Amino acid sequence: MKFWKITLFSALSAIFVWLFLRRVDFAGIRDVWLSIPWRYPLLFLALALPQYAVRAWRWGLLLRPFKRHVPFRSLWNFSLIGFMISYLLPGRLGEVARPVLLAEKEGIKKSQAIATIVNERLFDLLTVLVLLALYLVSARGGLSPLLRSLRAAAFLLLPLVLLVFFLVTLANHPRVFPWTERLIRALARVLPRRWREQTVAFILHFVRALRLDLGWKGLAAVAICSLLHWCLIAFSYWLLLRGFGIRTALPAIVPFLAVIFVSAAVPTPGMAGSLDLASKYALTGLFAVAEKNAVAFTILFHFLLLLAPIVLGLVALWSEGLSIKAVGRLGRKDELPAMR
């Protein structure tokens, strides 16, 4: 990654961390931590295993049009390696690393593997938005300012995500695809001639790969996996909140989940600052948690979120014969580590 990008993301992260930690009573936070029954953090970590297992299985479903059977070990390992890279390096590089590394090992076109990550993220966004919309529609009483903001965002973004799925399907329709190809070739004229054909070929493969050629059963399986994945995450958040004495109904976790989902998309290293500030804001705005308790929860919550994928990612890295040095090259040269 270029130096100016690292500087930008690091500066953004530093600002968020400063906003999060200002006026913090560290002695009070220590007292909050000492009062937690530690079975709750341990259960939170244990629930990370089925979350990543369901995510890996769903990725295999999305890859079926390109390779009927991808070994679960590869799906599991490269999912965790990708998340580890994204959490250790700025810029969400793991989102590109994991499909490219999997494609190299399993003999899949890289454009196809990358397209599955785009569809995966669209399903994530769609699932979280549907859960949020259902919660807000069924919520009783007046909504807090934060919930009103989330409602506006949910009912704006939900049709946009559905529109993206529709446009992808339309662009790949046999009668429409020639027009899609002409548009891509016309836009590619701004590129230097030596890169043009290669870029056009990659984009065309990528657009074709975005088509969810799974059938109704396949789409239903992906949707069920997405719902199960996010329900497991919501349940783990709910358990950890209970450990801090924050008692709330399980469905009420959905708005908090949505806020964390959005903050995690900010490409700061390890979600530093962005997730912390969002978590504190959501806890105080949604559940009227005292600022000291919100900060204490958020610091431990963030640590636990990173611990599982980084430790498991290191194990997966070793299992695939890759090295930390090879991963480190991602940050310096924007290149992906080669398979041994």
Quick overview of this protein structure:
77% of the residues lie in helices and 0% in strands. By secondary structure, the chain is mainly alpha-helical.
Oligomer: single chain
Shape: globular
- Secondary structure class reads mainly alpha
Low-confidence stretches: 330-340
Quickly count the helices: 15
Q: State the share of residues found in helices, binned by percent.
A: over 70%
Strand content: under 5%
Total individual domains: 1
| Mean model confidence by pLDDT | 86
The strand count comes to 0
Q: Could you describe the largest sheet, including whether it forms a barrel?
A: none
Rg for CA atoms:
21 Å
What letter string, H or E per element, gives the SSE order? HHHHHHHHHHHHHHH
Terminal CA distance:
23 Å
Describe this structure in words.
There is one protein chain. The protein is mostly helical. It has one domain (3-172, 211-333). It has helices spanning 3-21, 26-34, 39-46, 48-63, 72-88, 94-106, 110-138, 145-171, 177-187, 193-210, 215-243, 253-264, 274-287, 291-319, 324-333. α6 packs across α7 (110-138). The chain is globular.
Please give the structural blueprint.
Layout: H1 3-21, H2 26-34, H3 39-46, H4 48-63, H5 72-88, H6 94-106, H7 110-138, H8 145-171, H9 177-187, H10 193-210, H11 215-243, H12 253-264, H13 274-287, H14 291-319, H15 324-333
Helix pairs in contact: 1-13, 2-14, 3-11, 4-5, 4-7, 4-11, 5-6, 5-14, 6-7, 7-8, 7-10, 7-11, 7-12, 12-13, 13-14
